[in-house]
């Protein structure tokens, strides 16, 4: 329970950090768009916004998405290794109790969250 709770807390904090960084990047991009366009060209602005929505994301967003995905992947792998070591340290009776507690086999529990 402690291991699973700690791992859930780590995952939630990492996802919150990713969301915070994503919001900061969106603010920066919106600020850059607002300062670079002339407000007197409203029709032009609407047309540009429609094109912008169809355009691929900026390189900063792409880099952020890649880095957040890789950090989440690394964290999931470390959690999988922790669960694997946790199960290896148990005797067969404790593994049986763990299977009863989790409702799945320990082997499945190791890989289920990754």
Describe this structure in words.
The chain has 114 residues and is an all-alpha fold. 84% of the residues lie in helices and 0% in strands.
Strand content: under 5%
Number of strands: 0
The dominant shape is: rod-shaped
* Count of alpha and pi helical runs: 5
Keywords:
single chain; 114 residues; 5 helices; 84% helix
In short:
This protein has helices at 2-36, 42-54, 59-88, 92-102, 106-112.
Explain the layout of strands and helices.
Layout: H1 2-36, H2 42-54, H3 59-88, H4 92-102, H5 106-112
Helix pairs in contact: 1-3, 3-5
């Amino acid at each position: 329970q402690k291991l699973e709770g700690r791992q859930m807390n780590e995952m939630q904090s990492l996802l919150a950090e990713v969301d915070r960084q994503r919001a900061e990047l969106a603010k920066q991009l919106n600020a850059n768009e607002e300062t670079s366009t002339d407000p007197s060209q409203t029709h032009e602005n609407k047309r540009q916004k429609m094109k912008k929505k169809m355009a691929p994301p900026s390189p900063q967003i792409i880099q952020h998405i890649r880095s957040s995905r890789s950090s989440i992947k690394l964290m999931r792998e470390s959690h999988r290794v922790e669960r694997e070591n946790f199960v290896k340290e148990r005797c067969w009776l404790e593994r049986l109790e763990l299977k009863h507690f989790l409702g799945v086999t320990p082997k499945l529990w190791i890989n289920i969250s990754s």
